Amino acid sequence: MASLNVNKAEFVRSAASPEQFIRSSVPAVVFAGKSNVGKSSVINRILNRKNIARVGNTPGKTVHINYFLIDGKLYFLDLPGYGFASVSRSEKERWSVLMEQFFAEKDLYSLGILIVDARHAPTKDDVGMASFFRQSGVPFLVLANKTDKLKNSELNANLALIRQTLDLGDDISLIPFSAQSGQGRDLLLSAVTNLI
Ligand SMILES: Nc1nc2c(ncn2[C@@H]2O[C@H](COP(=O)(O)OP(=O)(O)OP(=O)(O)O)[C@@H](O)[C@H]2O)c(=O)[nH]1
Ligand SMILES: [Mg+2]
Which atom of ligand 1 is nearest to the CA of 33? Predict the structure, then answer.
């Protein structure tokens, strides 16, 4: 298997509009999910970094598409989160325009990672995002993040509910994950390393 040195990661760019999107033959992984679900934290965990992707207690911390280049071989894209009720209307509008522009263009990414909250049933927006990924034809997988906040006895039932609500076929991986404890990191790392 190819090797990826995750300790060689750099922030490259924050894209606020299509002319700033990176178009390259280097494979790219997008991290999508509702605001505050832990997209930036998952990236930090994979990269063994505290805060290369900025983490916030305030939902809506990530507002642009942030590009990280890993070992010169792979991009990680930290997307702004959806579904945060108390951001302003113009802010939401800006978000949806940017996301539409991003997802309307072909070949901007080669693997989608949808992060949902392991503790709860997926939201309507999560369901929409999963169905979007499914229809795009680009491979994707789902992380159920924040498992550290669940009892082991609750986890299996929640995973079944997530699988059912998002209508995930048997071919789609659903990985229990904790950006806090590192659960699931090895599985995710091997999935992204497969791209290079
Ligand atoms: N307990 C626990 N907390 C987590 C985990 N992952 C993230 N968090 C916390 O959840 C909050 C949000 O994390 P972020 O990584 O900023 O979430 P995000 O999805 O990038 O949020 P936006 O950029 O606003 O869309 C922070 O307080 C994190 O410390 C996890 O696995 N376990
Ligand atoms: Mg973020």
Answer: 19
Identify the CA nearest to 127 among candidates 101, 163, 91, 79.
Answer: 163
Q: Is 64 in the pocket of ligand 1 (CB under 6 A)?
A: no
Task: Give the total residue count for the chain.
Answer: 196
Q: Write out pLDDT tens, residues 75-97.
A: 999 998 888 766 788 888 888 89
Ligand 1 pocket check: which of 30, 31, 37, 41 to mutate, most ligand atoms within 8 Å of Cβ? 41
Phi/psi for 121 (5° steps) reads: -65, 145
pTM: 0.95
Could you tell me the domains of the chain? 9-193 (3.40.50.300)
Rounded to the nearest whole angstrom, what is the distance from the C-alpha of residue 99 to the centroid of ligand 2? 15
Tell whether the model's pLDDT for residue 170 goes beyond 90: yes
Q: Is the CB of 149 under 6 A from ligand 1?
A: yes
